[in-house]
Amino acid sequence: MTPKYALKLAAIVPALFCLTSVVLSQTKPELIDSLLKVCVANGQFNGSALVAEDGTVIFKKGYGMANFDWGIPNAPDTKHRIASITKQFTAMLIMQLVEKNKIKVGEKITTYLPDYRKDTGDKVTVHHLLTHTSGIPNYTSLPGFWSDSTRNPYSIEYLIKNFCSGDLEFEPGSKYSYCNSGYVLLGAIIEKVTGKPYVQMLEENILKPVGMKNSGIEDESFILANRSYGYLKNAGQRVRDPYFRMQNAWAAGAMYSTVEDLYRWDQALYFDDKLLTRKSKSVYFAPHIESGGGGFYAYGWGIAKYALGQSPDSVTAIVHTGGLNGYNTIILRVPETKDLVVLFNNSGPAPLGGMCKAILGILHGKPFLPPKLGIVDTLMATTVTEGVEAAVKRYGVLKSTAEEKYDFAEVQLNVLGYQLLALKRVKDAIRILQLNVELFPEAFNTYDSLGESYMIDGQKELAIKNYAKSLELNPGNSGAITMLKRIQEMK
User: Fold this and answer.
1) Is the pTM above the cut of 0.85?
2) Domain span including residue 433
3) Are residues 100 and 170 in the same domain?
4) Are 250 and 163 in contact (CB under 8 A)?
5) Residues 389 and 355 in one domain
């Protein structure tokens, strides 16, 4: 931490963590602002925020830069890519068509997309697509998609045929597995049934009625005023996010919006017949399938318990996150109290869930703390200056002495491994990903990532061994299946 930030935090931290008369005298908006300033100073947040209590906005503000190149700051009306938050809008369009008897959620998808492969399409229903229970492979998890295919100008027909029509990974309806492919297919169904473009349906049936004038599907051929740009960190340095052709995310994640517009969306959902009847909304928000970690998935929304700060108390929240290259987003609604938290970050991965937890603590008068610090930058700096073995040793020391300060989740070392791969430090990446496997031996993704690093290094047998272990832990890991086939073909 630089002396500059240390001085700033010296003024902020007491206001956050000490139960003094100063804290007690602060308003909720002041506490939220103090919390977010700490997150900004810690490199955990750069974006726009809005908080509503009992249906009324009590806080909205921008932090950091929408465009670092030109020094343009974020604001409440800055347009950000919201990624998978798009899914709740796609699901709403489907339910509106259900109300008009143009779609049945229990009907197979080949009824609406007759050109889709019949052997799998006859088994998968619209409900399966809405709830991520279709068994169709997730196209964004296919090997090479992010490195090779994100930039290509695919038509929706090509995207579906080549990326969303794979063999089923499990029997439809038997389990939950998050799937962007399903929502691409839902977008195609909307167009087929109505004869109108998805973009037009979104505008006419949701955005215009709700008054969301600063939201839509991103089209790179048009200028978009007040938009942010996505950034990532690489070896501690901020860099522009890799180019992604947004039309390839389409009905699964191609929307942009503002925190103010998502407040309008939130409010519209409380009114019966504004977008859906009460009966249809009960289906839209129903907890249809368990999605892991005690949570459930509705139609385009997750339902989960969220802690109120550091207290043992919690509330039931309707929530969804989004992540796309340099963007990380969350919308969290608490219908019981009409609380709302919307956070858009345009500087890569961010602990938005932890920030929401702290903000809910503030709203309910509970003790709270900011999210733990990520360990990636610290270990990257050690790797660069002292070597990878020093970084491994430092990880162990920090885990035993500073576990309350740093986040030691599986994803941390995984991110570090991929950052090292991007820097062509393949041997260092292998060592870090080996450590992740040792620490999380039951996590399929650790073996998948280590297998990829071995593949890049030309160690095919070790790549096969780790991909196979990943597949053993998660038989539905389509990426591992594809990579094992590729390696066998190379022999």
Assistant:
1) yes
2) 373-490
3) yes
4) no
5) no
